Amino acid sequence: AEDPSTILSRFQQYLQINTAQPHPNYYEAAEFIISQAKLLSLESQTLEFVKGKPLILLKWPGNDPTLPSILLNSHTDVVPSEHHKWTHPPFSAHLDSTTGNIFARGSQDMKCVGLQYLEAIRKLKASGFRPLRNLYLSFLPDEEIGGNDGAGKFVDSDVFAKMNVGIVLDEGLASPTDNYRAFYGERSPWWLVVKAVGAPGHGAKLYDNTAMENLLKSIEIIRRFRAAQFDLVKAGQKAEGEVISVNMVFLKAGTPSPSGFVMNLQPSEAQAGFDIRVPPTADQASLERRIADEWAPASRNMTFEFKQKVSVNDKFGRPAVTAVDSSNIWWELFEEASIKANARLGKPEIFPASTDARYFRERGLPAIGFSPMANTPILLHDHNEFLNKDEYLKGIDVYESIIKTYASYIQYQRDDASREEL
Ligand SMILES: [Zn+2]
Ligand SMILES: [Zn+2]
């Protein structure tokens, strides 16, 4: 077997490529991935649906290419970081020799997963394994800024249609406990801007219907809603992914002046932005009504606009979730493979944020969110994001088991039923 330090140094190499938004070095990442693919004799292809945003597609052909394929997805971009607030620079991929923790932006979200797929394939190849069905790996751009130019374009492409994908694996979250976490759905992002207008006037005058007052009423109502949702989580009645979250992310109002803002003028416009995440089981229409009637009512001189509004339903009008019971053979195989790898899974969950998996589920494809990181604090998008080297190495074995199980599964007629209706 290969020396773990060689495996880890490849991970570090990938982490050292600065693919932070808003200017990810996509081409350097692409070059690295393609060079790794070559060493593994995988077919590779660069797709540039949007200029400057390359998508890398790798293929390990199966013995029976007519069977639905497996897609192992990851994204190459990462979120920005405040370098000076980190103990080790975010692109140093520093390996702490005492703890074995590897510090880097992307160590959890989600360069770990992208390379673990490749390392698992390396091991399978070394053992002489041959996949029965086609196995694809996609390394997508754009995830952290919405995915429209990455996953969005990919799922609409002819290339994707020809791949005949049967199951997608995408990212999950770290787990602070011994159990790994698996996700069968995710909350839909609704990015809402509410705007108030009102009569401008002297800063000393008390009068009704100012823009500020109108906006503040909305903010109060939204805060009450937020608190009620949060209470359900705090009381243990609902998981994080099962409530509607709403967080104010900006406030904008006032008349600028050289020294800051004009202090004796009540502005005629004010706005606030909210990041709302809606569970797939939520009543979308009722939330829409709530926004129009209570959060931004025309009667209070308010308007609203969505910067992003992803439907909670798939293209068939059903909640965009993947079945995690015996009706979904891919879920059963996933569980079976985890047991074989000695990986304990918690109860499947709704991912509280958003991933590219939504683009696949929206098309009715089953997708499982999974990042094998147990005993790990959740640090995605945080300072000092890290992954322990042993967790990383263990994750490779878990993927080895999953890929082997998926790629050797022979689809019997019995199991075709659930796919057929797709
Ligand atoms: Zn992220
Ligand atoms: Zn991610």
UniProtKB/TrEMBL annotation:
<dbReference type="InterPro" id="IPR052083">
    <property type="entry name" value="Aminoacylase-1_M20A"/>
</dbReference>
<dbReference type="InterPro" id="IPR010159">
    <property type="entry name" value="N-acyl_aa_amidohydrolase"/>
</dbReference>
<dbReference type="InterPro" id="IPR001261">
    <property type="entry name" value="ArgE/DapE_CS"/>
</dbReference>
<keyword id="KW-0732">Signal</keyword>
<dbReference type="Pfam" id="PF01546">
    <property type="entry name" value="Peptidase_M20"/>
</dbReference>
<keyword id="KW-0479">Metal-binding</keyword>
<dbReference type="InterPro" id="IPR002933">
    <property type="entry name" value="Peptidase_M20"/>
</dbReference>
<protein>
    <recommendedName>
        <fullName>N-acyl-aliphatic-L-amino acid amidohydrolase</fullName>
        <ecNumber>3.5.1.14</ecNumber>
    </recommendedName>
</protein>
<keyword id="KW-0862">Zinc</keyword>
<keyword id="KW-0963">Cytoplasm</keyword>
<keyword id="KW-0378">Hydrolase</keyword>
